[in-house]
């Protein structure tokens, strides 16, 4: 297990209709040169999404679903370093939910109100983990302070 404490910076963003959520967040992280960013909370809506479902393993092809209808974002969580690791839950017009690992195509319908945090004393990277077959989070103390 890796664990470390840190001070926190908070950023608030609002994305508008037609913007792609994942790439917009990654652009913000790059612009602000954030080293240990993560999602605190997000509400809003999307008109489409591409998600990887939970059955992926290193030796089994990923099951990907492409959704194209109006959804409310009921949860968005994860880390936003260069190789973002985000999970989302979406509710359809009947209130049914679907969720998974965000691959992209999260096109904002009306709004996406996102609160980002950055652990200002840490640096997030990813390294391949032979136990899981996936690049997993590595948490390091930041050498330089922002």
UniProtKB/TrEMBL annotation:
Residues 5-140 form the PPC domain. InterPro entries: PPC_dom. This is PPC domain-containing protein. It comes from the Eukaryota. It comes from Silurus meridionalis.
